[in-house]
Amino acid sequence: MNIMHAYKFKSSVINGGRPFMPEVIEIDDSYVTFRKKKSLFSALHSISIPLKNIVNIQVSKSGYGVNILIESFSKSSILGKGFSASEASEIKKLLTS
């Protein structure tokens, strides 16, 4: 029996995220997935990157919160804004281990 681990992180208004439309980063055993809505009435935008294809992770302070940039071999990238410093360090730790 395989046990699948999944972690979910949401941006917060307190950390500079958008109200009513948080950005979500989900990490499971195979993929990192980013989800966000551009506006209340738009469709959900989603991008997934296989963990084995991640080449760079940058964490940068921005205003009250932290931004996370995740880049892959295929030139696709994820930019999450409005996360706490502890969430960002946990995301980086999960993706680099």
Structure description:
This protein has a single domain (7-96), classed as PH-domain like, CATH 2.30.29.30. Helices cover 12% and strands 47% of the residues. It contains 1 helix and 7 strands. The protein has one helix at residues 85-96, and strands spanning 7-10, 24-27, 31-37, 44-50, 54-62, 65-72, 77-83. The strands form 2 sheets. Strands 1-2-3-4 form a 4-stranded antiparallel β-sheet, covered by helices on one side. The radius of gyration is 13 Å and the shape is globular. The model has no long low-confidence stretch (mean pLDDT 88).
Quick structural gist:
The protein is mainly β and 97 residues long. It is built from one helix and seven strands; from the N terminus they run E-E-E-E-E-E-E-H. The model has no long low-confidence stretch (mean pLDDT 88).
* SSE succession: EEEEEEEH
The helix fraction, in percent, is: 10-25%
Q: What's the CATH H-level homologous superfamily?
A: Pleckstrin-homology domain (PH domain)/Phosphotyrosine-binding domain (PTB)
Can you identify the CATH class? Mainly Beta
- According to CATH, the fold-level topology is PH-domain like
Q: Spatial order of the strands in the main sheet? A: 1-2-3-4
How are the SSEs placed, and which strands pair?
Layout (H helix, E strand, L loop, with lengths): L6 E4 L13 E4 L3 E7 L6 E7 L3 E9 L2 E8 L4 E7 L1 H12 L1
Antiparallel strand pairs: 1-2, 2-3, 3-4, 5-6, 6-7
What labels describe this entry?
97 residues; mainly beta; PH-domain like; four-stranded antiparallel β-sheet; three-stranded antiparallel β-sheet; 1 helix; 7 strands; 47% strand; globular
